[in-house]
Amino acid sequence: MHEIETSRLRLRCGHDGDVDGLCAGLNDRSIAQWLVRPPFPYGREQAERFVGLTRIVGDHGFHPFRIIADRTSDLLLGVVSLEPSGFRAELGYWLLPSAMGQGFMLEAAKALIAAGGVRLPEVSLVYAITDPKNLASRAVLCRLRFDLVGEEPRQGKRRPSTNALLYERPMRLEKA
Predict the structure, then answer these.
(1) How far is CA 74 from the centre of its chain?
(2) Rounded-to-integer distance, Cα 176 and Cα 173, Å
(3) Is 164 inside a domain boundary?
(4) Is residue 127 part of a domain?
(5) What's the pLDDT score for residue 63?
(6) Nearest 5°: phi and psi at 170?
(7) Among 5, 96, 135, 137, whose Cα sits 20 to 30 Å from the Cα of 162?
(8) Is the pTM of this model over 0.90?
(9) The domain that contains 154 carries what CATH number?
């Protein structure tokens, strides 16, 4: 299971053509301000390493890091990840500004969580951590049926220290 397709998107491993898009996105302050892990500024070497990371198969043949690409043009729109650790998996994501507000993240995250539910049988809980001021991220998590369960201290790299919001949901939701 190397690619996941939705009606508009392809969640895939990275390739050399993604390096410029990764650099552009992660050097955009409107995106970088919310992210904790990637360095800022973000260089070509880091992007090339990340592309390699997207090719590493995890447990059960599952790739935890996926490039979100337009299904028709295959152009990079962002990144989504589902990183398992024991019975939990952390959801992470970002989109290029040009891709925001079109429902792409909701579509990508739903597809990756569904694939994870099949490929990661030991994972029963998905969680995500976001800045309280990141309203777009909070809206995505609510639409994905995550519950706000608490706060935790977080040392931001680009924003002052703050309490981050912790959201959780079961990996497999019962049909509504």
Answers:
(1) 18
(2) 8
(3) yes
(4) yes
(5) 86
(6) -65, 150
(7) 96
(8) yes
(9) 3.40.630.30
